[in-house]
């Protein structure tokens, strides 16, 4: 078994332990909705779009997760022109454990479904080929939420993704600035080495 598979098992094991004896975290919200810009920059693909995510704390230490994003892809390796829409759906859950009032350990696993539709043109061809496909898999995230200042939260994370025939481990950083009791601005950048891919998110979060 490779290191990526071991990482996924380790994250799953952390979730089981968290669900059996975790203490409610203080100072962090796990019930929120957010929306904003989503982008992908990689050697083989460029895409921009919108994303919406939901987290709901069903107990003091367990949350359910759901997300949707729609990306417009205008670059793909091996094609001279691309016009493809990518719809991505996620659903799953996670757990969190409070180390201090300013630090939480968090783990999550979500099911991923990606649907691609559109057209792409090979170099030298006069017509575009139809693109339609579905990829399924999962994504596991292990992170630490850190309250760096009263209004600023930083979250370094490790992400393991296995969707379709693609699998890779990435490293990312969340930054959340709370400008109101219920409202925050969130930015995220996650880098995957295999395709030199950087996933970007910038949006607004509302704590429920």
Structure, explained:
This protein has one helix at 3-21; strands at residues 32-41, 45-57, 62-76, 81-100, 103-121, 129-149, 152-163, 166-178, 183-192, 197-207. It has 208 residues and is mainly beta. It has one domain (3-207): Beta Barrel (Porin). It has a 10-stranded antiparallel barrel. Strand 8 and strand 9 (183-192) form a beta hairpin. The radius of gyration is 18 Å and the shape is elongated. The chain starts with a helix and ends with a strand.
How is the topology of this model organized?
Blueprint: H1 3-21, E1 32-41, E2 45-57, E3 62-76, E4 81-100, E5 103-121, E6 129-149, E7 152-163, E8 166-178, E9 183-192, E10 197-207
Antiparallel strand pairs: 1-2, 1-10, 2-3, 3-4, 4-5, 5-6, 6-7, 7-8, 8-9, 9-10
Structural class: mainly beta
> Under the CATH scheme, which architecture would be assigned?
Beta Barrel
Name of the top-level CATH class: Mainly Beta
Helical content stands at under 10%
Number of beta strands: 10
Radius of gyration, taken over Cα atoms and rounded to an integer in Å: 18 Å
In total, how many domains does the architecture comprise?
A: 1
Largest beta-sheet characterization: 10 strands, antiparallel, barrel
Q: What is the molecular shape?
A: elongated
Q: Count of helices?
A: 1
Poorly predicted ranges (pLDDT <50, ≥5 residues)?
1-9, 13-26
- Mean of the pLDDT scores? 87
The CATH topology turns out to be Porin
Instruction: List SSEs in N-to-C order.
Output: HEEEEEEEEEE
Task: Measure the end-to-end span.
Answer: 41 Å
Estimated share of beta-strand residues: over 45%
* Order of adjacent strands in the largest pleated sheet: 1-2-3-4-5-6-7-8-9-10
């Amino acid at each position: 078994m490779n290191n990526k598979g071991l990482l996924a098992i380790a994250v799953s094991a952390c979730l089981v332990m968290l669900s059996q004896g975790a203490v409610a975290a203080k100072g962090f919200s796990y019930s929120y909705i957010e929306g904003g810009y989503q982008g992908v920059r990689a050697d083989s693909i460029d895409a921009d779009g919108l994303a919406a995510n939901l987290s709901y704390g069903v107990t003091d230490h367990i949350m359910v997760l759901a997300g949707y994003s729609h990306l417009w892809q205008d670059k793909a390796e091996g094609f001279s022109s691309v016009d493809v829409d990518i719809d991505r759906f996620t659903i799953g859950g996670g757990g969190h454990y409070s180390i201090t009032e300013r630090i939480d350990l968090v783990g999550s696993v979500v099911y991923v479904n990606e649907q691609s539709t559109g057209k792409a043109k090979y170099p030298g061809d006069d017509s575009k080929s139809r693109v339609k496909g579905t990829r399924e898999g999962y994504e596991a995230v292990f992170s630490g939420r850190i309250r760096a200042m009263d209004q600023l939260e930083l979250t370094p994370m490790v992400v393991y993704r296995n969707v379709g025939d693609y699998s890779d481990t990435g490293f990312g950083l969340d930054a959340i600035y709370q400008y109101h009791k219920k409202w925050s601005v969130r930015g995220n950048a996650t880098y995957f080495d295999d395709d030199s891919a950087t996933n970007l998110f910038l949006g607004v979060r509302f704590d429920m």
